[in-house]
Specification:
about 15% strand, four-stranded antiparallel β-sheet
């Protein structure tokens, strides 16, 4: 699980600092990997290698919103729903995060590694590094 503390201005111009939580379970990752012929990770490598910015942006959005949720008060559950994801997507915190990740690929890579289960983080990093794929640099 990854906790992102973000400061942003709301639509009333008020500065807010909030904690946002992101996580993908092993089951969610398995579903994601199986959702694409040849595997999601291989698909991502191809998209990144081809510098396919529209596809990269779609994946950023998908990963941010599919990993967003709220911890239950007792810590037993990580609650996700389309309604929670939509509500988050309508904040400037989401907008700022999305733009930041596209402009700073190193921060996007840290985010993606951070939302993975601990035992899969090294495997993910190794898979990306082995292929030499890098997110496109933006200015």
């Amino acid at each position: 699980m990854l906790k992102e503390t973000r400061t942003y201005k709301d639509f009333d111009g008020k500065e807010r600092t909030e904690d946002f939580y992101f996580n993908l379970s092993k089951a969610e990752l398995m579903e994601l990997e199986a959702s694409v012929d040849g595997g999601w990770l291989n698909s991502m490598k191809r998209i990144i290698s081809a510098q396919n910015n529209p596809a990269i942006m779609r994946e950023f959005k998908n990963m941010i919103l599919s990993s967003y949720g709220e911890k239950s008060p007792d810590g037993k559950r990580f609650i996700k729903s389309p309604e929670l994801s939509k509500a988050f997507s309508e904040t400037e915190a989401y907008s700022d995060m999305f733009v930041e990740f596209f402009q700073h690929p190193d921060r996007a890579a840290k985010f993606f590694a951070g939302i993975l289960p601990a035992e899969l983080k090294a495997e993910f990093a190794d898979a990306i590094a082995a292929d030499g794929a890098a997110l496109p640099a933006q200015s």
